[in-house]
Amino acid sequence: MEFSSSLLENAVSEFAKLPGIGKKTALRLVLHLLKQDPGNVETFGETILKMRREIKFCERCFNVADAATCSICANPLRKQELICVVENIRDVIAIESTQQFSGVYHVLGGIISPLDGVGPEQLTIEPLIQRIQQEKTEELLFALNPNIQGDTTIYYIQKKLQSAPVKITTIARGIAFGGELEYADEMTLARSITNRLPVERYVQH
Ligand SMILES: [Zn+2]
């Protein structure tokens, strides 16, 4: 691609760094911005910059937050004794969209996957164990992707909690094994939460 302006070229190459955006799409987006009022483009740029600079992670559940505690943890209407364990922030957003879950979350920040070099120590598992002991959690609901890594992670955490008086459940497998939680439709995900099962009936070892 040949450009007569390096300013344009730089902008295109920045957009092309985003996932799923090729050079052609990047050019279309940049040309769109070029047609906008400079004030609108300024708001666009500042919003991205502000998000990156000021976003925080909840001290309790590791979800994204505007303050030290996220709005879900701070909501007195949410059942604080029911913790839903998820892999990442996208899963929190997917479950919140179902409007079927009234508890709080714990974002692991990944999943145990030895082949990818991800062990328990890279995840927020230790803070989760401490949290359960301190908060007198009644139920831990696992909403992890139904695959080997998900099962391994559940098994590991369950072992660590053997002596804790906490009920451990997992979302029902309305979602295909090997499927991705974030791509499930809202109905399937909602039903999976309503029909959750005890972990003993789910992970066979
Ligand atoms: Zn939180």
From TrEMBL:
Q: Does the keyword Nuclease apply?
A: no
Q: Does the keyword DNA damage apply?
A: yes
Zinc fingers classed as C4-type: ranges:
58-73
Gene3D superfamilies from the entry? 3.30.60.80, 3.40.1360.10, 6.10.250.240, RecR Domain 1 (1.10.8.420)
Q: Name one GO biological process term.
A: DNA repair
Q: Which GO molecular function, any one, fits this protein according to its record?
A: DNA binding
Keywords noted in UniProt: DNA damage, DNA recombination, DNA repair, Metal-binding, Zinc, Zinc-finger
Q: Which InterPro entries match?
A: DNA_Rcmb_RecR, Rcmb_RecR, Rcmb_RecR_Znf, TOPRIM_dom, TOPRIM_RecR
- Which PROSITE patterns does this one have? TOPRIM
Q: Which Pfam family, just one, is annotated for this protein?
A: Toprim_4
Domain Toprim intervals: 81-176
Q: What superkingdom does the record give? A: Bacteria
The record ties this protein, via PANTHER family, to: RECOMBINATION PROTEIN RECR (PTHR30446:SF0)
Function of the molecule: May play a role in DNA repair. It seems to be involved in an RecBC-independent recombinational process of DNA repair. It may act with RecF and RecO.
Could you tell me which NCBIfam families the record lists for this protein? recR
Task: Say which family it is in.
Answer: Belongs to the RecR family.
Could you tell me what this protein is called?
Recombination protein RecR
Q: Which organism is it from?
A: Niastella vici
